[in-house]
């Protein structure tokens, strides 16, 4: 089974994906979002930012293992692409949307944990 944990920041996706991959002895695919936040973060020239988004998606490809758990998938990444106004790059947006859709289709199950339901966040993040 191939599972992707999707959704908002700070709800425990990484903790859930890690726990699930350990439990299932599955390959864990990291979100790789650190690539987006390096070298100026999510600002700068749209073309350079689009390059980083495409690099993240390339790194998120699952191996040919029967059991995979991903921390985020192409659907999450495309949402972030749109949130950062990269839709203005029309040709690249169409290609990136197709790549994200194909990436997301590789999973058997997408899990969208509801906000504030997972209690897996480390104590230093539980600021309430």
Structural write-up:
By secondary structure, the chain is of the alpha/beta class. It has five helices and four strands. The chain has helices at 13-24, 34-37, 46-59, 74-83, 90-105; strands at residues 2-5, 27-29, 68-71, 109-111. Strands 2-3-1-4 form a four-stranded parallel beta sheet, covered by helices on one side. The N and C termini lie far apart (35 Å). Mean pLDDT is 86; it is low at 123-128.
Summarize the topology.
Layout: E1 2-5, H1 13-24, E2 27-29, H2 34-37, H3 46-59, E3 68-71, H4 74-83, H5 90-105, E4 109-111
Parallel strand pairs: 1-3, 1-4, 2-3
Number of strands: 4
Strand content: 5-15%
Q: How large is the count of helical segments?
A: 5
Radius of gyration equals: 15 Å
Would you tell me the overall average pLDDT? 86
Please give the oligomerization state of what you see: single chain
Question: Which sequence of SSEs, written as H and E, runs from N to C?
Answer: EHEHHEHHE
**Low-confidence segments, ≥5 residues, pLDDT <50?**
123-128
Termini, distance in Å? 35 Å
Largest sheet strand order: 2-3-1-4
> Residue share in helices?
40-55%
Main sheet attributes: strand count, strand direction, barrel closure:
4 strands, parallel
- The helix-and-strand class reads alpha/beta
Q: What is the 3D shape?
A: globular
């Amino acid at each position: 089974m191939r599972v992707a944990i999707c959704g908002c920041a700070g709800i425990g996706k990484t903790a859930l994906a890690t726990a699930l991959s350990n439990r299932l002895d599955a390959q864990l695919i990291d979100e790789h979002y650190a690539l987006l936040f390096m070298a100026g973060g999510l600002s700068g020239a749209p073309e350079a930012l689009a390059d980083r988004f495409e690099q993240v998606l390339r790194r998120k490809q699952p191996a040919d293992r029967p059991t995979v758990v991903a921390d985020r998938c192409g659907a999450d990444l495309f949402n972030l692409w749109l949130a950062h106004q990269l839709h203005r790059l029309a040709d690249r947006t169409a290609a990136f949307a197709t790549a994200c859709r194909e990436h997301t289709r590789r999973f058997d199950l997408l899990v969208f944990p509801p906000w504030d339901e997972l209690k897996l966040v480390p104590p230093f993040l539980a600021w309430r």
